């Protein structure tokens, strides 16, 4: 009992320390009362507003324009924000508390996944601390509001240690769970994580037997089935429509600038790559592989690879090859923990030096917060509007600035290419009749449009995007009418009488939707059964 009691006290102390660290990671930014919304911030905030008002819709019915952008972006990265918004109504506080919550959860995941693998407290604690206080996290969240990347980052330790367990013990559940959670958080990080796992498998392919390949198949099926509700919708949209995807002008690796190197954690990576040369012979076989994988990932992130030659290929969807660096941050954080734990154990007072190291790293993190704050608060471009996007805004004298109505009209991602010329009109709820006369509708959300029709219309082109392969119900004053998609892929109806009209558009679920629900249910049931077996196994072990 004393052992269990001490164990519980120790874990409670560790978790409390993680909460303290999570608060410190944004304390200076919080007290400075400002927010750097970033260039894509308005777009991601609009995603959150849509998610909050209609959690289960894959289409932007909230703003009544019909965009299927929600089908192409995973929603799990909005869950934490949605949960907190139930209790916190102030937008500014909501964003800060969401960051604290995500860092706190990330610390717990990183610590316990590492502990289950290494069975070493010091290594696990250092790994969690270094991994979740890395400088890029502040830049991704406060500079870009990249909710997907931050959320996926939390689950990378599951993939990392799950891969190591698969190679050494042929255990597949942790790796499968990590890939599943990343898939529904940020699709590009899933691609990078899959490549990361593939490189590991290539290093160890000689060790694989038939049972390993069977378990790889199990991992693939679990990930694909559980996420079927997401990827099957994308397949449907891509199959029937030519979709306009986000594209960065030029693919390029680092270095872009000294500031980029500082903010994206390359200093940490380069230091460990240098130290690794001296410690390489002392590394275990698996740690040597970790070091080599770090070198490979760093090269993939750099301009050594001629990424610009792939600008106009499907690989262009990556946008920023430098995002590979999140994997180098993962592996170097672990190598720091391994090296740091060994060095501390050889010191006369390891506890004191450990505390000094923690304080030093927290000080570096706070310095980075101060630098981020200076960039936005004191620079000439603070609070500037670019193309109707609020790049940065700050709060003075305790006043709260609402950002729920930020204009995102120039974001045309994931709409049919044939609709590009009409997209702005659709966004501002402007349709037209058979003579191309503009008609402005009132939109009340949930696919509802209001029109005061002053004359009979042979054709009425609604400000609502229609996707091929997706069926719709169109009601005019509660009467179902036929519709078709015009050449610009907006929903069009015919023979509309004079008078006040309420037009209601809703989605019709097809066989692909129901197949995706069945597959996702099977995936979740599989995880539930695996979890139940693990609980029974632990219970029986404790009883003995």
TrEMBL record:
- Entry keywords, A to Z: Membrane, Transmembrane, Transmembrane helix
> What residues form the membrane-spanning segments?
12-36, 65-88, 95-118, 124-142, 149-167, 179-203, 210-232, 265-283, 290-310, 322-344, 351-370, 514-535
What domain of life does the UniProt record list for this protein's source?
A: Bacteria
Stated name of the protein:
Membrane protein 6-pyruvoyl-tetrahydropterin synthase-related domain-containing protein
């Amino acid at each position: 009992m004393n052992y269990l009691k001490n164990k519980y006290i120790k874990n409670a102390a560790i978790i409390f320390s993680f909460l303290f660290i999570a608060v410190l990671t944004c304390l200076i930014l919080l007290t400075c009362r400002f927010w750097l919304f970033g260039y894509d911030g308005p777009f991601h905030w609009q995603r959150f507003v849509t998610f909050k008002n209609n959690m289960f819709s894959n289409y932007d019915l909230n703003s009544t324009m019909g965009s299927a952008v929600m089908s192409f972006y995973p929603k799990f990265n909005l869950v934490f924000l949605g949960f907190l918004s139930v209790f916190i109504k102030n937008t500014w506080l909501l964003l800060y508390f969401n960051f604290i919550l995500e860092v706190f959860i990330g610390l717990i995941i990183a610590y316990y996944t590492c502990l289950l693998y290494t069975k070493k407290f010091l290594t696990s604690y250092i790994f969690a601390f270094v991994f979740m206080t890395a400088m890029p996290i502040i830049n991704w969240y406060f500079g870009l509001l990249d909710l997907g990347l931050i959320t996926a980052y939390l689950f990378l330790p599951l993939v990392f240690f799950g891969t190591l367990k698969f190679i050494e013990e042929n255990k597949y559940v942790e790796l499968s769970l990590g890939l599943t959670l990343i898939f529904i958080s940020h699709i590009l990080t899933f691609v990078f994580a899959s490549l990361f796992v593939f490189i590991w498998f290539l290093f160890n392919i000689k060790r694989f037997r038939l049972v390993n390949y069977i378990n790889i198949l199990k991992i693939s099926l679990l990930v694909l089935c559980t996420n079927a509700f997401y990827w099957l919708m994308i397949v449907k949209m891509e199959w029937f429509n030519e979709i306009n995807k986000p594209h960065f002008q030029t693919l390029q690796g680092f270095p872009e600038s000294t500031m980029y190197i500082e903010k994206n954690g390359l200093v940490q990576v380069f230091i460990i790559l240098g130290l690794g040369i001296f410690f390489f012979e002392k590394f275990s076989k698996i740690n040597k592989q970790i070091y080599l994988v770090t070198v490979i990932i760093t090269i993939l992130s750099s301009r050594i690879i001629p990424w610009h030659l792939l600008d106009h290929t499907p690989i262009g969807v990556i946008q920023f090859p430098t995002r590979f660096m999140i994997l180098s941050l993962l592996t170097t954080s672990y190598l720091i923990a391994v090296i740091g734990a060994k060095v501390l154990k050889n010191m006369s007072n390891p506890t004191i030096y450990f505390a000094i190291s923690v304080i030093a790293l927290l000080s570096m993190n706070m310095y980075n917060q101060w630098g981020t704050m200076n960039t936005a608060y004191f620079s000439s471009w603070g609070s500037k509007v670019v193309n109707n996007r609020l790049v940065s805004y700050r709060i003075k004298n305790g006043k709260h600035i609402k950002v729920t109505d930020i204009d995102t009209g120039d974001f045309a991602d994931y709409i049919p290419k044939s609709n590009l010329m009409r997209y702005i009109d659709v966004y501002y709820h402007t349709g037209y009749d058979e003579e191309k006369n503009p008609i402005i509708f009132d939109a009340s959300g949930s696919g509802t449009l209001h029109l005061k029709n002053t004359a009979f219309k042979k054709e009425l082109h609604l400000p609502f995007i229609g996707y091929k392969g997706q069926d719709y119900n169109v009601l005019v004053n509660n009467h179902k009418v036929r519709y078709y998609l015009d050449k610009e892929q907006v929903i069009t109806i015919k023979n509309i009488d004079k008078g006040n009209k309420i037009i209601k558009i809703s989605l019709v679920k097809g066989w692909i939707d129901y197949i995706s629900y069945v597959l996702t249910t099977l995936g979740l049931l599989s995880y539930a059964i695996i979890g139940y077996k693990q609980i029974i196994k632990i219970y029986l072990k404790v009883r003995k």
